[in-house]
Automatic annotation (TrEMBL):
PANTHER family: SKFA PEPTIDE EXPORT ATP-BINDING PROTEIN SKFE (PTHR43158)
Keywords per UniProt: ATP-binding, Nucleotide-binding
Keyword hit for RNA-binding: no
Bias type Basic and acidic residues, positions: 276-287
Residue ranges of domain ABC transporter in the record: 17-255
Glycoprotein listed as a keyword: no
Pfam families the UniProt entry points to: ABC_tran
Region (Disordered): 268-302
Organism: Hondaea fermentalgiana
Protein name per its UniProtKB record: ABC transporter I family member 20
Transmembrane annotation, as ranges: none
A GO molecular-function descriptor: ATP hydrolysis activity
Xref: InterPro entries: AAA+_ATPase, ABC_transporter-like_ATP-bd, P-loop_NTPase
């Protein structure tokens, strides 16, 4: 518990996350650099519940991975709990990252090959943490409707997802990064899970950043919204400014209207670019790319390439 408390003390009193003028590019399979994020700026206060919004490919998952310390950055660009995310391991002792394809605990490593499909009961997975936090374990068992006697090779995909979430939340966190983790949860479990996360923020002062495309039942959940498009932050605003706007009426309608507008703009730009290319004999315009020279190792933090660090 000491590391978690230390992480809470390391940061300033006000902000859990500060991203300043951060850009990130990576080479694709053809060796061409792709601009994933460009001049990203946003801040989140401690205790915030932030929804990370954007179309597919907008850069949401990349932002979460950067905050989790999985990509290199200059020290002043990404501050998490008061410390540069990828430079000091002490900074991530209070950070949990749960992704859609991989599941990461920033501390409490138990090997990179956790047997989520092996013949092992839930009660024996990450046993040291289950024994260290018995009250939290039992609460998560009940919350996610998990039977500790389940054997992992016999459960459904949805049940396996719930076990993964439980393991990712066993140790109390100061910052939780969620990348579309509720996709397999049924309506009741998802509602209870969101209520639990809200209590974690209100009672413990934890901060949560949640990227999702599912907005049912979330009108009362967020405190902040960050809207991304093509790797840029278009909007970083308290949710109250949106919920009080009669033009939208609900979170779902706001997101739909925003993403539809962005899609229509992108289509118009593509059509205009195609027309311009035809006029110029299909000459390819040079693409502005942030230099990749200061992003060695393909921009990954050494030792954090694995999707699953449980």
């Amino acid at each position: 518990m000491g590391n978690n408390d230390d992480a809470q003390k390391e940061g300033g009193e006000e902000y859990a996350v500060e991203v300043t003028n951060f850009s990130f590019a990576y080479p694709n399979s053809y060796g061409k650099e792709v601009q994933a994020l460009e001049d990203v700026n946003f801040k989140l206060k401690r205790g915030a519940r932030c929804l990370l919004l954007g179309q597919n490919g907008a850069g949401k998952s990349t932002v979460l991975r950067v905050l989790a310390g999985k990509h290199l950055h200059k020290k002043e660009e990404v501050i998490v709990l008061g410390t540069a995310a990828c430079y000091q391991t002490g900074a991530v002792s209070g950070v949990s990252y749960l992704g859609a394809s991989g599941w990461t605990r920033s501390i409490a490593f138990a090997g990179n090959n956790v047997a989520f499909e092996a013949d092992i009961p839930v009660k024996e997975m990450m046993l040291h943490l289950q024994e260290k936090y018995p009250e939290r374990r039992d609460e998560l068992y009940k919350l996610l409707d998990i039977n500790p006697e389940w054997r992992m090779h016999m459960v459904s995909d949805g049940q396996r997802r719930r076990v993964r979430i439980m393991l990712g939340l066993l140790r109390p966190f100061n910052l939780l990064l969620l990348d579309e983790v509720t996709v397999d949860l049924d309506v009741v479990v998802r509602a209870d899970f969101l209520a639990y996360l809200k209590r974690e923020c209100e009672e413990r002062g934890a901060t949560i950043i949640y990227a999702t495309h599912i907005f049912d039942g979330m009108d009362e959940w967020p405190t902040d919204l960050v809207l991304l498009d093509k790797g840029r932050v278009l909007r970083n605003t308290p949710y109250g400014a949106i919920s009080s706007d009669q033009k939208y009426g609900s979170l779902y309608k706001f997101v739909e209207a925003s993403l539809r507008e962005l899609r229509d703009q992108a289509r118009a730009e593509q059509n205009a670019a195609a027309s311009e290319a035809d006029k110029k004999g299909n000459e390819e315009k040079p693409q502005k790319i942030v230099p990749f020279a200061d992003r060695p190792n393909c921009g990954y933090t050494p030792g954090r390439l694995a999707e699953m660090d449980l």
